[in-house]
Amino acid sequence: MVIGAMSERQKRDHAVSWEKIATMTNVKLRHKIVGFLLTLVGVCSMFLFCLLETETEEGKDESLGTTVSILGLTGTAAVILAILSEASVLMKDEGGEAIELEEEIIVSEVSSFWVALSVVMTMSYTALYAGYAFNPSGYWGEYADLILPIVGLSFIISTVMKPLRNDRKYIRFIVCHFVQFAVCSEVRKSEERSVQDMPLC
Amino acid sequence: MLTAAIFPHSLSQVLGFVGNLKLGSNFGAAFNLLRIPIYCIGLKLIFRLRTTIAKLPPKELSGFLVQTIFVKCAACLATIVFFLFEDITCWMEETDDTLCKNTSTAALYLSIIILIATLTSVIRRSAQDEVRKELSISKERLASFDLDVKEKVELGCLFITAAASLILLSSLGVSSEQNPANIYTGMIGFAGFTVIFFIETSELLQAEERRSSGISTSSSRRLKMKRMGSRNLSSSYLSKSSRFMDFV
Hints:
Structural class of chain A: mainly alpha
Number of domains of chain B: 2
Order of helices and strands of chain A: HHHHHHHH
Largest sheet of chain B: none
Mean pLDDT of chain A: 77
Mean pLDDT of chain B: 78
Low-confidence stretches of chain A: 189-201
Shape of chain A: flat
Order of helices and strands of chain B: HHHHHHHHH
Radius of gyration of chain A: 22 Å
Number of helices of chain B: 9
Oligomer: heterodimer
Largest interface: A-B, 62 and 59 residues
Number of strands of chain A: 0
Number of domains of chain A: 2
Helix content of chain B: over 70%
Strand content of chain A: under 5%
Helix content of chain A: 55-70%
Number of helices of chain A: 8
Distance between the termini of chain A: 39 Å
């Protein structure tokens, strides 16, 4: 409703294309914050959706209830902040200037921010390795199984995000990234233990 | 540079191989050795993919980076995260972790199938428009089943993977002990899409090579012949069906 109430000029001024997001150019701080908030809303909603038909058992009611409350409140707060941010654009009176057509953006490489994010996501496997080194009896193997597809996807997309970069420095980065991924892509499964011992629960 | 990349990985796998042999895990040891060529081929493929992408015209490159790498991979990531949450939810719900094995296996295999599907899509989109059009299967050819052996295998694998994915999806939230059928279903689905991935990749690489060496006419001629063949085939079907209708 808030976006629908905006004038065409306001909509055009505040629209963010995928090209802009990919290159992170001309993206205002407000857009970055709203983007983060909407991602948070998405993640919380997905988790809550998965918890929709969960049956609670004795001794677990409290922790599950707390998780649902935290997720619900975080998601609600994030969506309210996102709406307020959009509403602030609507409230601003910026005069009726002529609409300028934006030039088509040609993306030749994705922003370093997304490459760094992919590298960090890939390195989560290395973090599991570190955890395994400190506490070999933990559930690192189970966690590793869970995040393996995410880590694999992050690694592959991080290598093709800047296809035109062929300088020695960038190739060295890809090679090091591969070494880090390939060496640390298997965490040995620990012995069977009760699920109550898992730090997540 | 490639040797420098492959050496630490190979060394770690050889050490893993020795360790697994000492533990008496022959399967683990064999898997360690198998990972060396898989990762080497993977790395080679990544560099090849980068070179192919770099050759795309600016507009196609922009479309590839935004639509395939950014939007499609984000969608794939969201789906995988959803399966991950299904698994975590099961852990939170059940006191006995063996009751979540079914969900864990289903979530893992579904995520891997989606990952391979996305990779196939990335590799397909890395080719130029002309090559993609050349290799695509039209609805007309599909209807008349005028496909070559590779395409028939691809179609068969696609059906098998779809069926396996549906079975895995139906067992996603089911709390029960590990069902071996679930693992086999996942492996069948994984194998099915892996075959599709390799066929697509090999076809694209061949087409790109033909294109770069200037022998692009043979495939287009083959395509034309195929189209003509399908037209002839459809006309023969039509004449047969009209004769049948007359007979009726």
